[in-house]
Each structure stands twice: as C-alpha cells, then as structure tokens.
C-alpha cells in the first residue's frame, strides 16, 4: 500500500500530463488540416477543455490531501502529419486512463473513496476521448 504522500506525488505527475494534454490538444487543433478533420478539430477542442477541468479537479484534490499542486508540464508532442498528431493524442489518453485506474485503486486503499469517485469521473472522460480518437483514426476493435 502506498502512503498519502506517494499518492500526492502520483497525482502531481498526473497533473503535469493534464497540463500537457491540454496544450497539445490546442496546438494540434490549430495544425490539423483538410476538410475531413473539421469535426475532429471541434472534438479536440472539447478534449482540451476537459483536460483543463481535470487539472482543476486534480489541483483541488492535491491541496485537500495537504500537497502543493505542481506547475510543471509533461513534455508535449508535435507533428505536421494529421494522423501522427491524433496518434500522439491517443497515446496520451491511453497513458492517462491507465494512470487513473491505478490512482483510483491507490486512493481507495487509503480509504479515500470520495477521491476515488472523482478520479473515476475523470477516467470516464478519458475513455470517451479514446473512443473519439479511435473513431477519428478508423481504429475498429472487432473481435471475430
């Protein structure tokens, strides 16, 4: 079992990634080009807003637990290729969902079920981002 201090550290790491995802989505939305990406751009801008909200929730949780929310930002990725940008965003989302699933377990092992629920809500939105990006990339998960 981890300590509350370790949970705060992990949440701060998640926070750096939320900041980065928000910045990356905004930059990618301005760089995507071609008529087939018009609707995708709108979705990506929605994702950027969601990531901003996630960052606010995380800062509140970290402060509530007695920590200081970080201002550090995880490295961002850029590209001039539309599909590569979307894959970069998708990989961020896979990483985020994996991290939140771990954080939910960590919080609940400490008896912090209210925080676990807040993290579940974030994880659900991250999963929706994954679905949007997989659809945009034409990724089908059909089990024959």
TrEMBL record:
GO MF term set: ferroxidase activity
Report the enzyme's class at the first EC level: oxidoreductase
Instruction: Please name one Pfam family that this protein belongs to.
Output: Ferritin
The UniProt record lists the Ferritin-like diiron domain at 1-144
User: Which intervals of the chain form a coiled coil?
Assistant: none
Q: Does the keyword Heme apply?
A: yes
Q: Does the keyword Repeat apply?
A: no
Catalytic activity, EC: 1.16.3.1
> What keywords does the record list, in alphabetical order?
Heme, Iron, Iron storage, Metal-binding, Oxidoreductase
* Stated name of the protein: Bacterioferritin
Which organism was this protein described from? Thermoanaerobacterium butyriciformans
